[in-house]
Automatic annotation (TrEMBL):
It comes from Thalictrum thalictroides. It comes from the Eukaryota. It is found in: Cytoplasm. The keyword Phosphoprotein does not apply. Its main location: cytoplasm. GO terms for cellular component: chaperonin-containing T-complex. Residues 528-555 are annotated as: Disordered. This is T-complex protein 1 subunit gamma. Keywords: ATP-binding, Chaperone, Cytoplasm, Nucleotide-binding. Molecular chaperone; assists the folding of proteins upon ATP hydrolysis. Known to play a role, in vitro, in the folding of actin and tubulin. GO terms for molecular function: ATP binding; ATP hydrolysis activity; ATP-dependent protein folding chaperone; unfolded protein binding.
């Protein structure tokens, strides 16, 4: 029997094209409108109810969109933008959605006038190239070693967040942590891996001011035998293993047949000798602390406590790698292969402390740690979660600056300069692409306009005054003070943005807008549930009208 073939008529495709465009644009605008009010220092907070009934209070664009359950495919791809931005540069998650939404909004007029989407996309791509050139022109190099400037930059980037009320605290923590884990590869290359080597440990209780960056690591573990093993050791020699210090179990089920009663004793003795042999090989390097990712038997625990060695078992691999980076040890797979160079001697203090009801192990005061732990204290879990989100953004900003030490003006000044320059250039563009290019230039003004709206000032007056100041691409450093809504020199107020974040925001927003404009049909491959006894259903094509009718945002 021949398989049924789905035939799309030309008239249907053409008819649904503009409707699908309108559906996509409306969905994208709806997503942008949700988080528009969270841009800037005077932004609103959103309270989110997650699937398990928990509450999240935040104004982080990515955190809000992550919790949304949206059916529309275009809206889903907009949410993906925010996640991409967060993974790539860690900041600008709200700006990218607002900008992409505006780019699609200004394109709607051209779709209505029967412009071909490819023409609009070509104009947008040209606008993107020119906007990145403007960024390069107005960017200002920064000395990474100038702590005051770096602090100012990180502060201005997290000034829009909830923790800005705690002053320099979060900026200090972020800067200290990223400075510790930075590794120079030579040739001006510097690697800062904040995901692998910076652990944020949140412990409810105490005050936020008690938060600190440890020159080393901490983890939620106690020694194996608390009464017999030391909980405080100065200048410890640390051995890290990822093999078990217990008798090996058979890979598959093994049956041993014992003929004589004495054989049972021999078998047990073999096990004990095996474990003793392992312990002897480890103890000949005179360690003070032995940490393993796997199990540690009672007999091994006895040998270690007899030798005055503190042991910790079943540690996470990620924690073990951090300890290795902090104290200079090497994680060893087999105790037989241990060498003197594998022993970590860089730590100044090993200590187990009780915080609240739990024991935490601290390996701190390291000589040249390349991994660290940020210890956060605070009144409640909700507060700590929000502080952690803000800290991640701050660390990402510090990392971006260390990787690419360039600044651009904040407070909407960059977008206004880009907009003014593109408006000037649009007069030299020939052909039909001129109008979408000019519209893209106008779309950049969405960021300063939203900032002004969120400050509660007169938007039209403020925007007119700003456009006058930026008329010929001059006054690149004139923007909005996000707290008061006053037009000001952002250089004096130290309102800066990282070059990497701005460039990534522009690229992601415009490329995503182009991709959504190129979609002219939504073909649904989801099978509808059939009533029992009904025959096979025909394949369905979802036109723009259906896409519009779908519920975009949950009630």
């Amino acid at each position: 029997m021949q398989a049924p073939v789905l035939v799309l008529k030309d008239s249907l495709t053409r008819e649904s094209g503009s409707k699908v465009h309108h559906g996509n644009i409306q969905a994208s605008k709806a997503v942008a409108d949700i988080i528009r009010t969270t841009l800037g220092p005077r932004s609103m907070l959103k309270m989110l109810l997650d699937a398990s009934g928990g509450i999240v209070v935040t104004n982080d664009g990515n955190a809000i969109l992550r919790e949304l359950d949206i059916a529309h495919p275009a809206a889903k791809s907009m949410i993906e933008l925010s996640r991409t931005q967060d993974e790539e540069v860690g900041d600008g998650t709200t700006s990218v959605i607002v900008l992409a939404g505006e780019m699609l909004h200004v394109a709607e007029a051209f779709i209505n006038k029967r412009y071909h989407p490819t023409v609009i996309c070509r104009a947008y791509s040209k606008a993107l190239e020119d906007s990145l050139e403007v960024l390069d022109k107005i960017a200002m190099p920064i000395d990474v070693k100038d702590r005051a400037k770096m602090l100012g930059l990180v502060k201005s980037c997290i000034g829009t967040k909830f923790t800005s009320q705690f002053g320099d605290l979060i900026a200090d923590l972020a800067l200290d942590a990223t400075t510790i884990v930075g590794v120079d590869h030579g040739h001006g290359l510097r690697e800062v891996d904040i995901k692998k080597y910076i652990k944020v440990e949140k412990i409810p209780g105490g005050q936020l001011e008690d938060s600190k960056v440890l020159k080393g690591v901490m983890f939620n573990k106690d020694v194996v035998a608390p009464g017999k093993m030391r909980r405080k050791i100065l200048n410890p020699r640390i051995i890290l293993l990822d093999s078990p210090i217990e008798y090996k179990k058979g890979e598959n089920q093994t049956n041993a047949e014992l003929v004589k009663e004495e054989d049972w004793g021999v078998l047990l003795k073999l096990e004990e000798e095996y474990i003793e042999n392992l312990c002897v090989q480890i103890l000949k390097f005179k360690p003070d602390v032995v940490i393993t990712e796997k199990g540690l038997s009672d007999l091994a625990c006895h040998y270690f406590s007899k030798a005055g060695v503190s042991a910790i078992r079943r540690l996470r691999k990620t924690d073990n790698n951090r300890i290795a980076r902090a104290c200079g040890a090497v994680v060893v797979n087999r105790p037989e292969e241990l060498q003197e160079s594998d022993v970590g001697t860089g730590a100044g203090l090993f200590e187990v402390k009780k915080i609240g009801d739990e024991f935490f192990t601290f390996i701190v005061d390291c000589k040249d740690p390349k991994a660290c732990t940020v210890l956060l204290r605070g009144a409640s879990k909700d507060l700590l979660n929000e502080v952690e989100r803000n800290l991640q953004d701050a660390m990402s900003v510090a990392r971006n600056i260390i990787k690419n030490p360039k600044l651009v003006p904040g407070g909407g000044a960059t977008e206004l300069t880009v907009s003014a320059t593109l408006k000037q250039k649009s007069s030299s563009i020939e052909g039909i692409e001129k109008w979408p290019y000019e519209a893209a230039a106008l779309a950049f003004e969405a960021i300063p306009r939203t900032l002004a709206q969120n400050c509660g000032v007169n938007v039209i007056r403020t925007m007119t005054a700003l456009q006058g100041k930026h008329a010929n691409g001059e006054n690149a450093w004139v923007g909005i003070d996000g707290n008061t809504g006053v037009i000001t020199d952002v250089k004096e107020l130290k309102i800066w943005d990282s070059y990497n974040v701005k460039a990534q925001t522009f690229k992601t927003a415009i490329e995503a807008a182009c991709m959504l404009l190129r979609i002219d049909d939504i073909v649904s491959g989801i099978k509808k549930k059939q009533a029992p006894g009904a025959g096979p259903s025909k394949p369905q094509i979802e036109t723009g009208e259906d896409a519009d009718n779908e519920q975009m945002i949950p009630e």
